[in-house]
Amino acid sequence: MSSMLRGARAPGVRIATTLAGALAVALLSGCGKKEETPAAGDATAQAPAAADGSIHPEQWPQPQWPFPADPALEKKVDDLLATMTVEEKVGQLVQGDIASITPEDVRKYRLGSILAGGSSDPGGKYNATPAEWLALADAFYEASMDTSGGGKAIPIIWGIDAMHGQSNIVGATLFPHNVGLGATRNPELLRRIGEITAQETRTTGMEWTFAPTVAVPQDDRWGRAYEGYSEDPKVVAEFATAMVEGLQGKPGTPEFLDGRHVMVSVKHFLGDGGTTNGKDQGDTQVSEAVLRDTHAAGYATAIAAGAQSVMASFNSFHGEKLHGHKPLLTDVLKARMNFGGFVVGDWNGHGQIKGCTNENCPATINAGLDMAMAPDSWKGFYETALAAAKDGTLSAERLDDAVRRILRVKFRMGMFEAGKPSQRALGGKFELLGSAEHRAVARQAVRESLVLLKNDGGVLPLAANKRLLVAGSHADDVALIAGGWTLSWQGTGTTRADFPNAQTVWEGLQEATKAAGGQAELAVDGTYTTKPDAAIVVFGEKPYAEFQGDIPNLLYKPGDDSDLELLKKLKADGIPVVAVFVSGRPLWMNREINAADAFVAAWLPGGEGGGIADVLLRKADGSVNHDFKGKLAYSWPRTAIQYANNVGQEGYDPQFAYGYGLTYADKGEVAPLPEESGIEGLQAPAGVYFANAMLAPGLSLHLEDAKAHTTLVTTVPVAVADKSLEVTAVDHQRQEDARRFTWSGKQPASVRLSAEPAQELTRETNGDLLLLVTLRPDAVPASGSLTVSAGAGTPIDLRAALAGLPAGQWTALGIPLKCFAASGADVSKLDLLLKLQSDAPATVSIARVAVGAVSEAGKILECPTGQ
User: Fold this and answer.
1) Kindly report the CA angle at 444 between 442 and 450, in degrees rounded to 5?
2) Tens digits of residue pLDDT in 536-571
3) 560 is catalytic
4) 346 is catalytic
5) What is the pTM of this model?
6) Where are the beta strands (DSSP E) in 270-346?
7) Annotated catalytic residue, options 280, 288, 521, 546
8) Cα–Cα–Cα angle for 517, 522, 524, nearest 5°?
9) d(CA 572, CA 838)
């Protein structure tokens, strides 16, 4: 099947892309015959890579590092370095996570840095108060400065992912994610957002944000696409300057890195937005020219703006992991591009280098990493790095260079004189969190990020003094419009009370209509008591972060047309319908666009839903409050397989081109769009192995008896030869959409869910994901064994867990992938995804098997002791 690929504005540059097969399914029908559903978009042709991965530093740009020679600063660094023991030097290279390290550990090991990962919080509470964050910052700082047990007083620096504002803290201002900010084309607004983010970060004690992300996403299937400003490297380069200067202040001014600013980590170096098939942490197989001109565009400008740190990326370049890539980290970034700050790693990224583990990897320091992010592996990394420094594996010159870079930044920030966080300029000024002034800037960002794709008949702007219906899943939910990296890594598990300084879209519309003398009614499902003059339907993607957001194609909610049906229902009632689509990327939405009179791409707007009301509504006299300003920073796909923003790709044919965006002065009519997605067959979301009685492609279901004889399940009912195990159809949410497995107990027998090729679940395992099995325990054995396993791992008891579930009720049982790994399963190539075995009479019904998050589980299986 051919595809139409889309491109950004960089003529003459190409990125090779593979058309991944869409997630078609093989049916396990209950009607006595097997139906084969061909995989759509399964073309195997791939444009050959234009390079072998070689790097030529002399061909890379040479930005000017904006700091003149400073003999006084260098003397401070050299004098301190000369007094440090090798143990103290190694300590500066190590960063541990607050969930796995204590102030006492810092006091003992003299570590250089700590971080709070996406779901790491004081006391393990996602909604810890600002005061608790600040108190913990004080405790870690005081430990680093305590010399009562020996050692040098070197202040620790605390890094945190302030991704769209200081989004880890309850009450902080929540800005739109980068995907929306790119649509504003307003670098000065971005600079102001950086300043506010820095201030709100400083109030709670941190000095360092792991931002900005300057990836240039070239495949919208990537789960981190919303962290990129644009598919166009020119936009990314311009925005990198603005955000770095906003967060840090401008070099050469008194404000640079003062108490109202924070240091940055420009990330992720390099090529994270260009991996094959958009796979997070995957392999970037582009030419060196594309890597340099497209993916490095933001680094050249960030270095010129004085970025103090750069974060190494999880991805590989032609098979070589960036955390161990000396030509790029040292020869290009530090030597050629004149980067004078330090390079920090990403979450145990060093452990992915060949020959390394999370606890042992001197190779990453030798390659050019200066500080290892070893969140839960910090102690082992410290001990092995120390041993490497003592035996010469890690040279004294490389060790000193890394420590010198870190100390130079700490001196440049004035940290040795700053005092503890609560005593600094903004420490404890919690009134800054979500202040009216800061929220006004966030609301402006929402207004300017909205992109109008369709406005048939000029239905927008709507009169605020009329009767409006507000519907849709995202209409009255801050968490859904804020997205991932909001109070938790995945942006899930929160309540409305966690957002005291935010406004939903509904609340903004209600406030505006009330002020204008109109009426608004909220009904998520679109029901109404009195027919409205117009309906606003707010819907979209659920929150996700990193690889959990990777998708196989650009279908929206495959298998679930409820939002489309809602739009059609309201339109059929003769109501003008405005669709407000919330997403972290463009998706194939032709059917929804056709069903709506107006269609607005709202991206992930954050905490100021009222900004949407500002643009959608007009005053009673007909005048416009705020016009649409947003322009697409990512071209919009014509089909669900048109996922690659191939720069300069011949045949570029998007549905809506890069830069498209209507205003109220434009004719907003859009001719009916084709409703063929380009994908054949029934679809399932990424990571779903079994659902609706169907298997994902490449998967098979077998029954196995005590003699290892297997029976392939293609129809039901079916049983093994000795009748020790049989499978039948059963109803879950619809007719025969689940399978019931019954063991007779005469002989041991097992159910086997296998994958060919084997699944690579290392990322998911490291990310604490679960194998979610939606099941119903119909008959749990009172004795004997009932176990679950994966791969070649040791079986784990399942009987006790099932016995504790409500009989006859469906439950999503979560089995941590780390349990399987600890049992001996090779999660890097898992060919047996699930094995259920019993030697006793038992009956278990299964409706769904998928990889998912803790928040999706009704019950979580405890790993056996030692796992």
Assistant:
1) 105
2) 999 999 999 998 899 889 999 987 899 999 999 999
3) no
4) yes
5) 0.84
6) 283-284, 309-312, 316-317, 320-321, 342-344
7) 546
8) 160
9) 53
